[in-house]
Amino acid sequence: SGAAASLNLTDVVVSENFTFSVASRLPIDSPVVKRFWAERQETRDNVMQCVVCGKHKPVLRTLETMIKRVPGGNTSGTSIISFNAKAFESYGLEQSFNAPICTDCAERSHYVLNKLLSDERTRLTVGESALVAWTRDEAPFPFLDMLQQPDPDLVRELMRSPFTARHASVDPNRFYAALLGASGGRTQVRSWLDTTVDEAMQNLARWFSQQRIVGPWGEDPKPLSVRSLAAATVRDMKEVTSRTVSSLYLAALTGYPVPPSVIPLVVARTRADQTVQQNHAAALKLALCATDSRMEENMVELDLSNHSPAYLCGRLLAELEQAQRSANPSAKATIIDRYYGTAATAPASVFGTLIQGAQAHLGKLERDRPGAYNAIQARMEEILAALDTFPATLNLNEQALFALGYYHQRAANRAAATANREEKSA
User: Fold this and answer.
1) How confident is the model at residue 2 (pLDDT cuts 50, 70, 90)?
2) 76 Cβ neighbours under 8 A, 6+ residues apart
3) Angle at the Cα of 144 (from 143 to 146), degrees rounded to 5?
4) Which of 152, 179, 288, 354 measures 20 to 30 Å from 83, CA to CA?
5) Is the dihedral of CA 377, 378, 380, 385 positive or negative?
6) What is the spatial distance between Cα 237 and Cα 71, in angstroms, rounded to a whole number?
7) What residues have CB less than 8 Å from 416, skipping those under 6 apart?
């Protein structure tokens, strides 16, 4: 054709691909041409049962299409099936014959996976993991948005949903999700979920209920994202492990409990940071709910009925800090900066010293601010009355309770101070 005649073959590089069109149509788009090359590429000797569709068809020796945008993978892409050494092969099968997949299934699955990974509406990336999710039929509920940046109003509506039998149908809509990572040139499927849309919504509602915790200044609980909860386990988000991300996603979408392995990670951060932030407290509450379902409702805010020695010790440390801050508002450092780690692990070794040191602060408050003195003294007496003795050591679960007691009491104190200022101003 004229197009072919105008092509200068001296400009063609051997490694490049080029094509032509006939009547504005590319031959490579023709179903007949595609079928011809599929049959030409794979001989009848390669007929095996495809691991995807289950049919006996010619299968590919190697998968040419790469998966793009998988965190931690090569920039050129990663392979979802790859056997590049004899050690990975078995039964005399070579390359991808160890996991046979037909041309049609390979083409469709790779195309769809790349499309999911390229669209922010179906992809959520945290650390070195990417979650892709989709539904069989269109569903208006924004699952990934709720995990990435949860809308408080939508969370409240979700938690009020009855999820009764009236939601069921003969053929309920399906929800699918895959957590992907990479190791060099390979794609890793770290978790896979196949459930109904209603079940996924019900699990998500329970997830938000279990993580509910009062704000640091006594504000109403706000829903936290997976990223925020994962950040509670590390100093920098670059350090978050795929295991942590996977466990949080699975807990949110499947209803599985957050594993106990999260507790030491968060506890270590609170000791290193010398404080307990809202995401620390929420992550600890989520993990503790796995062993005590009462935590879901009882530990949203300060629980005066909780007489666990660890919880009481955390509350007491918050009161001792409050006494110091009230007596010396301009102090740049508090007892938390020096003693939080020891108090959270070996209370008996440090609380005697802390209480003795607090007497000077309490004496100053009694003289200058009797109202603040009376409030702090009353709370300390209430805590100490319920505490028979200071524990010599605290295990990891008890250290988590200590952190929650400290966080709850400090939030309650701040809320009370704010309310008192507003009352005086009014």
Assistant:
1) very low
2) 66
3) 70
4) 179
5) positive
6) 13
7) 218, 375
